[in-house]
Task: structure prediction
Amino acid sequence: MKFYLHPSCHLLSMHWNSFDLIKASRDGYKHPPRPKKMAHSQSLVIWRRQLQIRYYLMDKLEQNMLSQSKTRLLS
Result:
């Protein structure tokens, strides 16, 4: 069986603390964190449901599973 991501679903690897900046902005923090380059990248899955954009911060295991599901046949 082969799995495909929905066309509205995208995997992103972020090398800066962009997720923290987005979260602070959406939560209304007056003093968001300063942009900085991280030692290890963060992986996000982003998708659209109707007209709303959804996102989820993945851990390394989830990232590996989704990355592998795009390229392998599972039996």
